[in-house]
Design goal:
Layout lengths: L4 E7 L8 E7 L7 E11 L1 H7 L17 E2 L3 E9 L11 E5 L12 E5 L3 E3 L6 H4 L3 H14 L7 E5 L4 H12 L4 E6 L4 H6 L4 E4 L5 H4 L3 E6 L13 E9 L7 H6 L3 E2 L9 H12 L7 E6 L3 H10 L5 E5 L9
Parallel strand pairs: 9-10, 9-12, 10-11, 12-13, 13-14, 15-16
Antiparallel strand pairs: 1-2, 1-4, 3-5, 3-7, 3-16, 5-6, 6-8
Helix pairs in contact: 3-4
Protein name: NADP-dependent oxidoreductase
EC number: 1.-.-.-
GO molecular function, one term: oxidoreductase activity
Length: about 325
């Protein structure tokens, strides 16, 4: 019996984007509790290019032990193609989206992917697949920060640093849903109109006027940038305020403590079909918008990674899988 195949993008060696190769590979089969999804679109996320580089930015003791060849990608939107044993909540033909098996290995840069049934949610009815694939990791990161770590209790002034990016543009909207009285967005000047359109009350162009020079008395700083200079934002936070980092950064904890500022632990996003279903409801109700920076065909995944590494994204990068013919059975 001939083995079913599909087209996918595989990483054959750690390194630059050109290590991503579009080729024919065996099609996976769903096991117990799993669903086979015919992928229409796949999102591109920072962990994808961290993995492509061999996780060189992760401390050696914490690096996943992954060995090429690998298929990257965990954000998908598509249609249920087959069910594994024991799956009753889905039917073939259902439109779904999800953050598949994260943290952990998934294989979203492909025509088909196997996902635990519980990691999927019905695709928002108001979104096309290319838009839905832009949602899972970034929006779940924002949602889990706001409604789990912060427990949805936000009745204050919130500063979102890196507000135009994938996670940032969802955060600016979800803190408003959670009750923030004022939302301040920090990004480069070209994002001003975009962020004001998302409902930001005040926009700060960091390339012209650094936030630490003009913003004061913030109750909550959510920093999606981090890095060695993250401590520069300490003056923006009031005594008794708090900083919630999304990425690692040097916030000078001793100095922060002297200023009465608490720094919360970084929270690792987790796959959750139930959280995604809540996000889908907000999206379909018009309370959360999805921004797309750019869309690339699946075979141009290397170009998508090159775009990602240039930075200054406005929303998410997506790979369009459905626009190409399916491989043979």
């Amino acid at each position: 019996m001939q083995t079913a195949t599909m087209r996918a993008v595989r990483l054959h060696a750690f390194g630059e984007p050109e290590q991503l190769v579009y080729e024919e590979v065996p099609r996976p089969e769903p096991g117990p509790g799993e669903v086979l999804v015919r992928v229409h679109a796949a999102g591109v996320n920072p962990p994808d290019w961290y993995a492509r580089r061999g996780f060189e930015n992760v401390p050696a003791a914490l690096r996943p032990n992954w060995t090429p060849p690998l298929i990257l990608g965990s954000d998908i939107s598509g249609v249920v193609a087959a069910l594994g044993p024991g799956v009753t909540e889905w039917r073939p033909g259902d439109e779904v989206f999800g953050l598949v098996n994260f943290p952990g290995r998934a294989s979203g840069y492909a025509e088909y992917v196997v996902s635990p049934a519980a990691h999927l949610a019905p695709k928002p009815a108001t979104l096309e697949h290319t838009q839905a694939a832009a949602v899972p990791m970034a929006a779940l990161t924002a949602h889990q920060y706001v409604f789990t770590q912060l427990r949805g209790h936000i009745d204050s002034t919130v500063l979102v640093n890196g507000a135009a990016g994938g996670v940032g543009h969802f955060l600016t909207q979800l803190v408003r849903v959670a009750g923030a009285k004022q939302v301040i967005g920090v990004a480069s000047g070209r994002h001003e109109e975009f962020l004001l359109g998302l409902g930001v009350d005040r926009f700060v162009d960091y390339t012209r006027t650094p936030a630490e020079e003009t913003v004061r008395d913030v109750d909550l700083l959510i920093d999606t940038v981090g890095g060695p200079d993250a401590h520069r934002l300490l003056p923006t936070v009031r005594r008794g305020g708090r900083i919630t980092p999304v990425f690692l950064g040097d916030y000078r904890p001793e100095r922060a403590a002297e200023l009465g500022i608490s720094i919360e632990a970084i929270r690792q996003v987790r796959s959750s079909g139930s959280d995604l279903a809540e996000l889908a409801t907000l999206i379909d109700a018009g309370k959360v918008r999805v921004a797309i920076d750019s869309v690339f065909p699946l075979e141009d995944a290397a170009a998508a990674h090159t775009r990602a590494e240039r930075g200054h994204l406005q929303g998410k990068i997506v790979l369009n899988v459905e626009s190409h013919g399916r491989s043979g059975q």
